[in-house]
Automatic annotation (TrEMBL):
Cofactor note: Binds 1 Mg(2+) ion per subunit.
Post-translational modification: Activated by phosphorylation.
Record's protein name: Phosphoglucosamine mutase
Modified residues (Phosphoserine): 110
Gene that this sequence comes from: glmM
Cofactor annotation: Mg(2+)
GO cellular component terms attached to this protein's record: cytosol
NCBIfam families named in the record: glmM, PRK10887.1
Domain Alpha-D-phosphohexomutase alpha/beta/alpha per the UniProt entry, residue ranges: 3-143, 165-262, 266-372
Record has DNA-binding as a keyword: no
Protein residues bound to Mg(2+): 110, 249, 251, 253
Length: 450
């Protein structure tokens, strides 16, 4: 079955347009609540306790409305709710697991502008819900919403110590024998969910922290700041003569790093640093990237004796590939990094701490740690299309794709895919020559626009 509402990262869209409307989100909460209530284990049933879900959100103005709608839906299904307020997505994953709750829910559209919002779920184990469970929730959405009797309605309460719990968890993933004293760090919080958390994590580990993007007002999330707009971080690093800059996105599950010279390091380069650092301690079997991962990593890992597998684009698919093989490290060029020996899901703060520990252990700079890997130039063109656009049956597009692939031969590759979160078709061409990659990506994109 094909999921109707859930994309690669939950349900997402423009606020006020279906499905991100208060009535739908209330029904979504009710549907998810009925699925969770049905899945209670025997001990919970025997005790008569209701399942409890944790709801967190980023800093978008629409979060208040959607939080209230979700709360109403869960309550109507007889599910208790704990409210964490603005918290990073990975924080909700951690707290759900640590507090032994039935599920976690995050209200966020991640790196999208404030006009968008979304809903994503975590299981009791802190992992994103499997496709099968999302399908079960979608099936439940087709059932008319009712309400349990008054004596069985869910209750809601606020989780007051969520911030402190998560800060301590992040710090626990940094090696005990290391600290960040003597390191000046610029932390860009994207005016998002980590604005009151990320600066404190690095400060409490000893760093001198300059925070930017830490004044959310409900409308400025990801606006010219954060991992998707690193120019602000580059400027701040150079203006403050900082040693390193760290940029998160709106829900803090994505990471981009900038060095003292203002050079930007994307997720592919950060994955290489993580793998190299772990290999210096003990051999690792393999790492997972995506269809978009730069070919240079594949070449470098082969030389290192590290197996490399490409998953579909989306950190959930990287996670599935890691779990299938029992591996620990993977990531995307966009900055979604997974370190399963540290957390069950992608976490921008924890990923940054892994990079910082690699720098501290090696005594080398980011540039030095990546000096022996030459990234292949990639050109990515995003083409906005009408929802449901069938690019696979577009003959002119397919013919142009084949022509470009024939011209590239073994010296590059072409990838076309639909975004899982926006009505976009993404065209990526990778070649040894940057100008050639750009020219060919535009050629293919023009066939979509036509």
């Amino acid at each position: 079955m094909t999921r109707k509402y859930f994309g690669t990262d939950g349900v997402r869209g423009r606020v006020g347009d279906a499905p991100i409307t208060p009535d739908f989100v209330m029904r979504l909460g009710y549907a998810a609540g009925t699925v969770l209530a049905k899945a209670k284990d025997q001990s919970t049933k025997a005790s008569g306790k209701r399942p409890t879900v944790l709801i967190g959100k980023d800093t978008r103005i629409s979060g208040y409305m959607l939080e209230a709608a979700l709360e109403a839906g869960f309550s109507a299904a007889g599910v208790d709710v704990m409210l964490a307020g603005p918290m990073p997505t990975p924080a909700i994953a951690y707290l759900t697991r640590a507090l032994r709750l039935a599920a976690g829910v995050v209200i966020s559209a991640s790196h999208n502008p404030y006009e968008d919002n979304g809903i994503k779920f975590f299981s009791a184990s802190g992992n994103k819900l499997p496709d099968a469970v999302e399908l079960e929730i979608e099936t439940a959405l087709d059932t008319p919403m009712t309400c349990v009797e008054s004596s069985k309605l869910g209750r809601a309460k606020r989780l007051d110590d969520a911030r402190g719990r998560y800060i301590e968890f992040c710090k626990s993933t940094f090696p005990n024998e290391l600290d960040l004293r003597g390191t000046k760090i610029v932390v860009d919080c994207a005016h998002g969910a980590a604005y009151h958390i990320a600066p404190d994590v690095f400060h409490e580990l000893g760093a001198e922290v300059i925070a930017i993007g830490d004044k959310p007002n409900g409308f400025n999330i990801n606006d010219k700041v954060g991992a998707t707009a690193p120019a602000a971080l580059v400027d701040a690093v150079q203006a403050n003569k900082a040693d390193i800059g760290i940029a998160l996105d709106g829900d803090a599950d994505r990471l981009i790093v900038v060095d003292a010279a203002g050079r930007i390091f994307n997720g592919d380069e950060l994955l290489y640093i993580m793998v190299r650092d772990r290999m210096a301690v003990r051999p690792i079997e393999g790492a997972v990237g995506t269809l978009m991962t730069n070919m240079a990593l594949e070449v470098a890992f082969k030389k290192m004796g590290v197996a490399f597998v490409r998953a579909n684009v989306g950190d959930r698919y990287v996670l599935e590939a890691l779990q299938e093989r029992g591996w620990l490290v993977g990531g995307e060029g966009s900055g979604h990094m997974l370190c399963l020996d540290k957390h069950t899901t992608g976490d921008g703060i924890i990923s940054a701490l892994q990079i910082l520990s690699a720098l501290k252990r090696s005594g080398k700079s980011l540039a030095a740690l990546t000096a022996d890997i030459a990234m292949f130039p990639q050109s990515l063109v995003n083409v906005r299309v009408t929802p449901g656009f069938d690019w696979k049956s577009n003959q002119p597009l397919q013919q142009e794709k084949t022509a470009v692939e024939n011209e590239l031969g073994d010296a590059g590759r072409v990838l076309i895919r639909a975004s899982g979160t926006e009505p976009l078709i993404r065209v990526m061409v990778e070649a040894r020559d940057a100008a050639l990659a750009e020219q060919m990506a535009k050629r293919i994109a023009e066939k979509i626009a036509a």
